[in-house]
Amino acid sequence: MASKYQENGNGDTEKPLIVKHDADQTAHKEELVMVYLSTAVAVCGSYAFGTCVGYSSPTQFSIMDELNLSYSQYSVFGSILTIGAMLGAITAGRIADLLGRKGAMRLSSVICSAGWLAIYLAKEPMVLYLGRVLSGYSIGIISYVVPMFVGEISPNKLRGALSSTNQLSIVIGLSAVYVIGAFVGWRILALLGVVPCGLLFLGLFFIPESPRWLAMNGEEEEFEAALRKLRGKHADISYERSTIQEYLTILQTLPKVTFVNLFDRSNYRAVIISVGLMAFQQFVGINGIVFYSTEIFKSAGFNPSLGTILFGILQVGVTAGGALLIDRTGRRPLLMMSASGLLLGNLLIAFSFFFKAHSVALTLVPNLAILGVLVYIAFFSIGMGAGPWLIMSEVFPLHVKGLGGGLVTLMNWFGSWVISYTFNFLMLWSSHGTFFLYAFVCLLATIFIYKMIPETKGRRLEEIHASLNS
């Protein structure tokens, strides 16, 4: 075995050829501290996202009673969030390019806080609706900018895991609002919604801006300072710095990007991958499963409150597991496994309704339905929940990321609205047919992932963009 030490002419042992410098270890720790801190601050916005989405469920009857709202008026309150989010998605890319990633998050936190305060102070429906639209607009921005920011600041080895904390924070926020909503009134719950917005706003003062955005805007000194802060003062950033700068030099030779340019030869694969994956995330029926889970637990004779808690715990636990796995197994295997598991979950629910409709194996129906819901939410959380947001943050080149990311986020919210709006109509048509239809979409999603989604694990963003154009 070759020695790792060298000898001088006198036979004395000198310094080792291979040295594990303390500085390297220090740089690694510093890198983790600042990257983790920056991610933790950013996903306060994701947590706020989850609380906004979940707010209308535990507060329905108390708001209706106090403000004397009809079911149709409350339906407007619940669904108008999606309209605000679509408006936010349309403008998110331009805002993030103009104000920076931190500026976009800071603006979103202010708008979201204003929305929560409007709801807290509401005495009549129009103020309630205004607060809900503002909340929706803010999370339309957040749903785009947080995964993009985390993807841009993360080192290759951590990008998948850190980006997955976006989805993890969303489901934690969603679960938290269900639990807290059982113990406090709707106005207090709205006031508590300001807390993560405040943490995001204040936390942004202590973290660096995305180095890639700074470089794209010609702020060279700030770019190097931000990259150094994220990687550690002893880390060698020369290769990453030169890679980003060379890539941006190429981008600067390209004409100004318009919506039509998204479908140029150099960009269309990123658009197909991102938009397609985000469409499948919604059209596999996630909102239908979430909305109908309580009814499934009721029909099975299972305590719906306990079922909802188990549902939330499973969702948080599996999402956390997926975050730990995604940089080890890769994106494609988790997405393939997730889509296949969603197919199985939908089939279990579909057959439970089919057996019930035809009075076959009635004793198995409740257990089959519950198993289907739990299988579905577990496999959604491990891949299709976080995966599309991660892929979106990785495949778009910097110069089209604003427009492309906005389009993808708009697709997410549009798909969410379509599934939410059509679900009850589909269930009236055929309960088992609805879930067989979702199962077919899961099959298409599996094929799409196998054929179209590249493996991006451990690769620099610039390498990913170059490979998509090759």
The pLDDT mean sits at 83
Main sheet summary: 2 strands, antiparallel
* Radius of gyration, CA atoms, in whole angstroms: 24 Å
Overall strand count: 2
Q: Kindly estimate the percentage of residues that lie in beta strands according to DSSP.
A: under 5%
Low-confidence stretches: 1-27
Strand order, main sheet: write it out: 1-2
Helical run tally: 19
- Percent helix, as a range, is over 70%
* Large-scale geometry: globular
Order of helices and strands: EEHHHHHHHHHHHHHHHHHHH
- Backbone structural class: mainly alpha
Query: End-to-end distance, in Å?
Result: 42 Å
Description:
It is a single chain. By secondary structure, the chain is an all-alpha fold. It is about 80% helix and about 0% strand. It has a two-stranded antiparallel ribbon with strand order 1-2. Helix 1 packs antiparallel against helix 4, helix 11 runs antiparallel to helix 16 and helix 11 packs parallel to helix 17. The radius of gyration is 24 Å and the shape is globular. The chain starts with a strand and ends with a helix. About 50% of the residues are buried. The N terminus is likely disordered. It comes from Nicotiana tabacum (Common tobacco). This is Sugar transporter ERD6-like 8 isoform X1.
List the helices and strands and how they pair.
Elements: E1 5-7, E2 13-16, H1 22-54, H2 60-67, H3 71-121, H4 125-153, H5 159-181, H6 186-192, H7 194-203, H8 211-216, H9 220-231, H10 238-252, H11 268-283, H12 286-299, H13 304-329, H14 331-357, H15 365-384, H16 387-395, H17 398-429, H18 431-452, H19 461-469
Antiparallel strand pairs: 1-2
